[in-house]
Amino acid sequence: MLNTRIFSIVRKEFVQILRDPRTLALIIVMPIIQLFLLGYAATTDVRNIPMAVLDQNQSSQSRELLDAFRAADYFRIDYYVNSTEEYQKLIESGKIRAALVIPPDYDSQLLDGKAQVLFVLDGSDGSVGATALSTARLIGQSYATKVLEQQMTLRSSSALPAPPLEVRTQVWYNPDFRSAYFMIPGVIGMILSFITTILTATTIVRERERGTIEQLIVTPIRSWELIVGKLLPYVILAFIETFEILIIGHLAFAVPVRGSLLLITLASGLFLMSSLGIGLFASTVANTQQEAMLTVMMFNLPMIFLSGFFFPIQAMPKFLQLVSYAIPLRYYLVVIRALMIKGVGFAAIQSEIISLTIFGVVIMGAAAMRFRKRLD
Predict the structure, then answer these.
(1) What Cα–Cα distance (Å) separates residue 208 from each residue in 205, 214, 263, 374?
(2) What's the CA gap between 147 and 62, in Å, rounded?
(3) CATH architecture of 49-172
C-alpha cells in the first residue's frame, strides 16, 4: 500500500512536469549547453595571442625570428606596423595583446652576438600576460640557441659564447600582473548582466502570477509608460552597483580608474539596454518565475563563458569565437577594462560602443514590442 501511494505521487509529479513542455525543454537543453561550453570554451590555454610586428630591419634574419614566434602557436601575427604609435593604438583598442619591435640593425647585431629586440605586452589580463611574457622569452632563448649553434658550426669553435639575442620586455598597464585589475572591471559587467536580467524577468512574471499586471493594464497608463516604469528602478539600482564596485575596487584592491567616468557611464547605459531587453524578453516567454529564471540562464550562461570574462577568447575553437561576436558582454568587457586600466579615449573603443548601441536598440526594441503585444 505504501509503495502504491509513493508511486501515485511520483506519477502525479511526472504528469505535472510533462504538462509544462517549455520548462522540461530548458531542463534537458541546459546541461547540454553547459557541457559544450565547459568542454570547449572553458580553457586556460594561452594560444593565438594577437600580436603586431614593427620590423625595422626587413632581413632574412628578422623573418626567421618571426617564423619562430609563429611556430610556437602562442602568438598570432595580425598586424605589421610602421611606428610605435600604430601598435600603441592597437594595444589601447584591444586589437592586439603584444608587439614585437625589431631594430634597424638587427641582422648586423646578431652577427656581432649582441642583438636585442623589444617585446611589448598588454598586462591588463594578469593570467594571460604572465604566460605570454615567459613564452616570448623562451622563444627568444630557443632561437638564440639555434643561431648560436649555427655560428659555432661555421666557425668550428667549441667555446660557448653569450647568446647572440636578448628579448627585452615591457609590460604596460599592469606590470605586476595583478589579477584584480582584470577581474574587478569584469565583475561590473557580470552584475549588470545578471542582476538586471533576472530581476526584470522575475518581477514582471510575479506581477502576472499575482494578477496585478491585469489591473495595471486597465488603468489609463500607456504600454510604453508601463515598460519604462517597470525598468527604470533597475536602471537606477544597476548604476548604483556599478559605481559601488568602482569605489570599493579602487579603495580595497587599488584597481585604477584611469578613464573618463562619463564614458564608463555611457557604456554601462548602452549595455544595460541589452540586459534589460533580455530580461523583458524572458518575461514575455515565461509564465512562472521558475520559467523566467531558467530562460534568463539560457542567455546568461553563454555570456559568462564566451565573453572573455574567465577564459581567453583567442584560445577557444573558431566556431565559438564567431558566436562570441553575438554576445553584448564581450564588447562591454573590452570597453570597461580599457577605460579603467588603460585610460583610453573614445576613439580607441568607438567600434565597441557602436556595437553596444546596435545590440541595445535591437534587443530592447524587439523585447518591448513583444511585451506590448502580450499586454494587448
Answers:
(1) 5, 7, 37, 11
(2) 12
(3) 3-Layer(aba) Sandwich (3.40)
Flag the least confident range among 16-20, 28-32, 34-38, 328-332.
Answer: 34-38
CA-to-CA distance for 191 and 198, rounded, in angstroms?
10
Contact between 41 and 90 (Cβ < 8 Å): no
286 and 201 Cβ atoms separated by less than 8 Å: yes
Residue extent(s) of CATH 3.40.1710.10 domains in the chain: 49-172
Give the model confidence (pLDDT) of 303-340 as tens digits.
888 888 877 887 788 888 888 899 999 999 999 999 99
Matching residue, cell 511585451: 371
Q: Which strand ranges, in their side-by-side order, compose the sheet holding 98-102?
A: 75-80, 49-55, 98-102, 115-122, 165-172
**Cα-flanking dihedrals φ and ψ of residue 272, to 5°?**
-60, -35
pLDDT higher at 56 or 194 = 56
